[in-house]
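User: Quick sanity check before I run a bigger batch. Here is a single chain. Can you write out its predicted 3D structure?
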Amino acid sequence: MADIRHYDYKFTVPDNWFDGSTVSWIGPADEGYCPNITITRNFLESEKTSGDYSKGVKDALSSQFGDSGYEVIKEYDLTVSEEIEAAARIHKFYVEKIGFKVCQLQVYAVRGKEALTLTCSDKEDTFESNRGIFENAVNSFKFLV
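Assistant: Done. Predicted structure follows.
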């Protein structure tokens, strides 16, 4: 069994389980919406490049939000954790449940069969005011092991 520690709690899981965690940081609310940064971890069946993984996510998002005006604003490559080639995309889409468009910066970093997605989200009309916070989070990201 493995002991898992996260901030101020811990728990035990079987050794053959893997970390498929999602971690979120929530900013101050602005008109009912909180800007946020989320990191998700996925394990892949086979190795992919960050670009290939990014394309697969884009296809899924386009399919999911296509009728709600999914729009890619910018796509580019970058390096994270000083050595990992990553793919980035800024996109926006309408979320019917909340009644406005959300804009996101997503960064896809793949190491072997492990993919991490950093998602920085805000309302479309306030995204730019938080973009520096989002880019700082992306630029400071490091794999520790």
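The domain at 38-140 is CATH 3.40.1000.10 (Protein Transport Mog1p; Chain A).

User: Great, the batch can go ahead then.
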